[in-house]
Amino acid sequence: MNLFRLCGDLSHVISIVLLLLKIRATRSCVGISLKTQALYLLVFVTRYLDLFVTFISLYNSLMKVLFIATSSYVLYLMLTKYRQTYDKDHDTFRIQFLVGFAIVLALLTPHRYTMLEVLWTFSLWLESVAILPQLFMLQTTGECENLTSHYIFALGLYRALYAVNWVYRYLFEPDYWQPVTWVAGILQTALYGDFFYYYVMSKRRGKKLKLPT
Amino acid sequence: SSKESEKDEL
């Protein structure tokens, strides 16, 4: 475990805290894509099936449980308590394409053809594009609350920090070789490119995030 | 073999 990886994990946890804060503080899930949240739950469930077969560390296991639990909870809140505030009309991205993309690549790129490996590969490719419905929603509405923009930023930062961790591990761990993880992770980070730019610009002006329409 | 099957990241 190096510092980049640890900061990446922390950034991921912080993003979820920010999302829950946003929902509680505004008592609404306006501006949050239910589709992206559902995809994340699918990502965590398919990736962390190995909870039952492999033990890496207590830290890893607890984080896996935390990610599954919190993403289930967010989805639960959006579907029950705050359902009235969900902005369905702006959450129109067609996720069939994203799931199809992940299925095709999961069948083409696994390390070995076992159920767990294929599902794990599926989760990596799906995670790489799961933010698209959220970014699309932001694009169509043009702006979002500060907490929502911080949430998306922390979520993007997480994979960017992982990418630095991969470079570090590649340099210092002779056997470390995870090409699928790297390519999917870099794709994931690249999708945030525009968002990062407008986020940083809006923070420099001390204003809330607005996208050009 | 390589460490590829070792998934110690999240």
UniProtKB/TrEMBL annotation, chain A:
<feature type="transmembrane region" description="Helical">
    <location>
        <begin position="95"/>
        <end position="113"/>
    </location>
</feature>
<keyword id="KW-1133">Transmembrane helix</keyword>
<feature type="transmembrane region" description="Helical">
    <location>
        <begin position="180"/>
        <end position="200"/>
    </location>
</feature>
<dbReference type="GO" id="GO:0015031">
    <property type="term" value="P:protein transport"/>
</dbReference>
<keyword id="KW-0813">Transport</keyword>
<feature type="transmembrane region" description="Helical">
    <location>
        <begin position="65"/>
        <end position="83"/>
    </location>
</feature>
<dbReference type="Pfam" id="PF00810">
    <property type="entry name" value="ER_lumen_recept"/>
</dbReference>
<dbReference type="GO" id="GO:0016192">
    <property type="term" value="P:vesicle-mediated transport"/>
</dbReference>
<dbReference type="GO" id="GO:0005789">
    <property type="term" value="C:endoplasmic reticulum membrane"/>
</dbReference>
<dbReference type="InterPro" id="IPR000133">
    <property type="entry name" value="ER_ret_rcpt"/>
</dbReference>
<keyword id="KW-0653">Protein transport</keyword>
<dbReference type="GO" id="GO:0046923">
    <property type="term" value="F:ER retention sequence binding"/>
</dbReference>
<keyword id="KW-0256">Endoplasmic reticulum</keyword>
<protein>
    <recommendedName>
        <fullName>ER lumen protein-retaining receptor</fullName>
    </recommendedName>
</protein>
<keyword id="KW-0472">Membrane</keyword>
<keyword id="KW-0812">Transmembrane</keyword>
<dbReference type="GO" id="GO:0006621">
    <property type="term" value="P:protein retention in ER lumen"/>
</dbReference>
<feature type="transmembrane region" description="Helical">
    <location>
        <begin position="119"/>
        <end position="138"/>
    </location>
</feature>
<comment type="similarity">
    <text>Belongs to the ERD2 family.</text>
</comment>
<keyword id="KW-0675">Receptor</keyword>
<keyword id="KW-0931">ER-Golgi transport</keyword>
